[in-house]
Q: What sequence folds into this?
């Protein structure tokens, strides 16, 4: 808010939004403005839901990044088969003897029925695996969406027509069915069906398959935004001044598509987390012994676990629900911070 201030020499000064006091000796007017990014940050900090959601999301990423350190301090790893090393902890059916899935001071989240993996370390490593894959896919999707969406919107003509038809064609595919059907095909390109598939091949295949059908929505949004921007006066002025198309895109268009880009990214990542977990749940993603969020759901849905240890579903289920809800709320808060006129 602007408020006038009387100066000794009869001058007037304006202080904007709590800016610095005017120079009373010179009588000059000092106005401190705020950039759109700073205003967005101020609005975001006032949103309590968004701030809490950001801390929750950051907590999950910290846990994923520090999983090896946490496991070392905890004194266990997700690969030890306690059913073989300590059979006294399990009954004849492979179910933990202690109640609630074997939860104790030694095993914080209990033991997995069957093989007897430690649930706590398997969960934090599973979060690490799922988030690593989802972040990699998100980066690939964002880069592809920026490249093709802005190119189509700015160049227009045949380029826009060609890219637009590719987007329409790929959007016609049922993504989930395509994921399930194409994963074995992609894996077979790297490994013979007679050989055991390495984990890194499955990770690369998951990233490639999800990226192939994940970039079109963002590209279409950026194309529409760029189409509107290229008719604006400042773009025409840049063209008249002799700026190259690359300079116009880099200096004029990219800064103005940050809002839809950032908002869409905050919705894309949690969607990819659930997609990756779904593929592992169906057995075409990450498989044992590599920990994975979706793989834990798959294990929890087996007859042995459902009938004897329903608590095994609790920890991966609650953690995924909390993460997805927090990330979606964070996306809403980011959108509202960029566009305060938008209503939820």
A:
């Amino acid at each position: 808010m602007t408020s006038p201030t009387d100066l000794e020499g009869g001058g007037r000064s304006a202080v904007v939004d709590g800016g610095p006091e005017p120079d009373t000796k010179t009588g000059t007017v000092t106005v401190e403005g705020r950039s759109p990014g700073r205003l967005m940050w101020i609005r975001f900090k006032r949103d309590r839901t968004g701030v809490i959601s950001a801390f929750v999301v950051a907590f999950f990423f910290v846990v994923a990044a520090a999983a090896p350190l946490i496991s070392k301090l905890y004194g266990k790893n997700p690969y030890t088969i306690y059913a073989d090393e300590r059979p006294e902890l399990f009954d004849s059916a492979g179910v933990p003897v202690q109640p609630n899935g074997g939860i104790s001071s030694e095993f914080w989240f209990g033991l997995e029925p069957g093989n007897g993996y430690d649930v706590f370390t398997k969960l934090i490593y599973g979060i690490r695996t799922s988030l690593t894959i989802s972040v990699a896919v998100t980066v690939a999707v964002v880069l592809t969406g920026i490249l093709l969406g802005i190119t189509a919107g700015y160049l227009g003509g045949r380029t826009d027509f060609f890219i637009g038809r590719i987007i329409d064609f790929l959007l016609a595919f049922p993504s989930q069915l395509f994921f399930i059907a194409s994963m074995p095909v992609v894996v077979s390109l790297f490994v013979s069906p007679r050989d055991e598939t390495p984990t890194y091949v499955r990770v690369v295949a998951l990233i490639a398959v999800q990226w192939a059908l994940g970039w079109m929505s963002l590209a279409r949004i950026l194309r529409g935004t760029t189409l509107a921007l290229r008719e604006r006066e400042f773009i025409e002025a840049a063209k008249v001044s002799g700026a190259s198309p690359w300079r116009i895109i880099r200096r004029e268009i990219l800064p103005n598509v940050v809002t839809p880009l950032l908002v869409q990214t905050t919705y894309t990542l949690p969607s990819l987390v659930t997609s990756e977990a779904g593929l592992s749940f169906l057995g075409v993603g990450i498989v044992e012994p590599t920990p994975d969020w979706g793989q834990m759901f798959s294990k929890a849905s087996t007859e042995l676990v459902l009938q004897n240890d329903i608590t095994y579903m609790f920890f991966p289920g609650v953690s995924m629900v909390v993460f997805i809800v927090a990330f979606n709320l964070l996306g809403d808060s980011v959108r509202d911070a960029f566009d305060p006129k938008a209503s939820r």
